[in-house]
Design brief:
alpha+beta; 8-stranded mixed β-sheet; Chloramphenicol Acetyltransferase; about 425 residues; about 25% strand
């Protein structure tokens, strides 16, 4: 087994490349009361002791996580906060707010969108309750909810079954990847690291998906393929990466931890005139093949091997170099675009107070999907400021009769993650 805390290993990759920042933007229907939010967020955060931790380096040059009694930082203004510093009391979580928006900032090593929603819902429940609203707790974790072993579970590698998947998919490695976009971005002194907020009525997208043998994931994948064909007509192959949460496959379905692998679906230019229904059917069938638990077991073992490789390095710099050179995420199949879906969240009594929920991360041609009870809230993330790709993506929606609203290009203002040195 790897020697250190399960949540610590992504930190080594962060030391080399700060791409694990997350911000979730919650838009309320009323103006945020900063004073009430501050005390509510502080009370709610204590419910999650596995998030109340700071980072230090031990005598082996390894990152360790230590419990902290310090309060979560709650400050006004939408900006890029510096997690892990005095600004955030050394914590890798922080809350900011502005107008009707609350921003939940955190480092990805603890959790992803699904895990963080428990903290976010708890904070919103406490805030609205402190304002005097009577909100049904439902499945919301409050300070009175016992902390369970299940919510803190991690995979037990030794207990995973052996087994070969029934068939697998092989992917050509020559599909389009947007490398030139990154080069242009780095050379531009006025570059924009941004996203477009897109809102699609849930009822409409679900009906469209049902009528076209699809799911939200497969339909959005098809729309991105159609985007690619329009924006890059000379390209012959596109590969989409779709996040797949495999916690249940490895025996910890209720854990707060982000246990995710990427499924891939490849399209070619022979498919460009196919109807959406046929494209969606092919997309779903290829996703289905990759949802076999045997693939998850193998992935989990490879992650464990990677972590043992980090442990074997003699100091912090060597561990960070090894992590960057061997990252399972950044050395897998290169994708043209990505989808990450958190849209199944049940808001319960919080629903009437919400006007939008957007997940924001690093990524180019990445669509992060969250939702309120009425709408899917898409963050179309891009490093281009000339409208390429977003224009073609919206054209694809228009051609399929999918109604939407879209905002202007916004700066992500993702948090920085500051880690200690040896």
């Amino acid at each position: 087994m790897a020697r250190y805390d399960f949540d610590s290993y992504t930190l080594y990759e962060m030391k080399k490349q700060n791409v694990y920042s997350v911000k979730i933007k919650v838009i309320l229907k009323d103006q945020v009361n900063g004073a009430v939010l501050k005390t509510a967020a502080e009370k709610a955060f204590v419910r999650f002791p596995y998030y109340c931790r700071t980072v230090s380096v031990d005598h082996n040059g390894a990152y360790i996580l230590e419990h902290s009694e310090k309060l979560i930082s709650v400050t006004e203004g939408d900006r890029s906060v510096k997690l892990g510093t005095e600004e955030t009391n050394g914590l890798l979580f922080a809350v900011t707010y502005e107008g009707k928006c609350i921003y939940f900032n955190f480092a990805h090593n603890f959790c992803g969108g699904c895990g963080s929603m428990r903290w976010i819902k708890a904070t919103l429940w406490q805030y609205l309750t402190d304002l005097g609203h009577d909100i049904d707790k439902g499945d919301i974790l409050t300070t009175e909810t016992p902390i369970t072993a299940e919510e803190q579970a991690e995979p037990d590698i030794a207990s995973l079954p052996e087994g070969e998947p029934l068939g697998n998919l092989n992917f050509a490695m020559d599909s389009f990847t947007p490398r030139s976009d990154y080069m242009d971005f780095m050379k531009d002194p006025d570059r924009v690291n941004g996203y477009y907020a897109i809102r699609i009525p849930k009822s409409q997208l679900m009906k469209y998906a049902h009528d076209n043998d699809g799911s939200p994931n497969s339909i959005l994948a098809v729309m991105q393929y159609k985007m690619g064909v329009k924006a890059l007509p000379d390209e012959s192959k596109f590969t989409i990466g779709i996040a797949n949460n495999y916690r249940e496959d490895v025996g910890c379905p209720d854990t707060y931890r982000d246990i995710v692998r990427i499924m891939h679906v490849q399209y070619n230019n022979e498919m460009k005139d196919w109807p959406a229904e046929k494209l969606s059917t092919v997309t779903r069938s290829r996703m289905y093949v990759q949802m076999q638990p045997e693939i998850s077991w193998d992935k989990c073992r490879k992650v464990e091997e990677f972590r043992r490789g980090i442990d074997a390095q003699p100091n912090l710099d060597a561990k960070a170099d090894y992590a960057a050179a061997n990252s399972p995420i950044y050395h897998s199949i290169p994708s043209s675009f990505h989808i990450s879906y958190v849209g199944k969240i049940a808001w319960g009594g919080l629903g009437p107070f919400l006007d939008g929920v957007y997940s924001i991360t690093y990524g180019h041609l990445m669509i992060e999907v969250n939702a309120t009870e009425e709408d899917f809230c898409l963050s179309f993330q891009t490093i281009r400021k000339d409208g390429k790709y977003i224009k073609e993506f919206l054209q694809a929606l228009d051609e399929e009769g999918i109604k939407y609203s879209v905002g202007e290009l916004e700066d992500r203002k993702l948090p920085d993650i500051i880690l200690p040195d040896e």
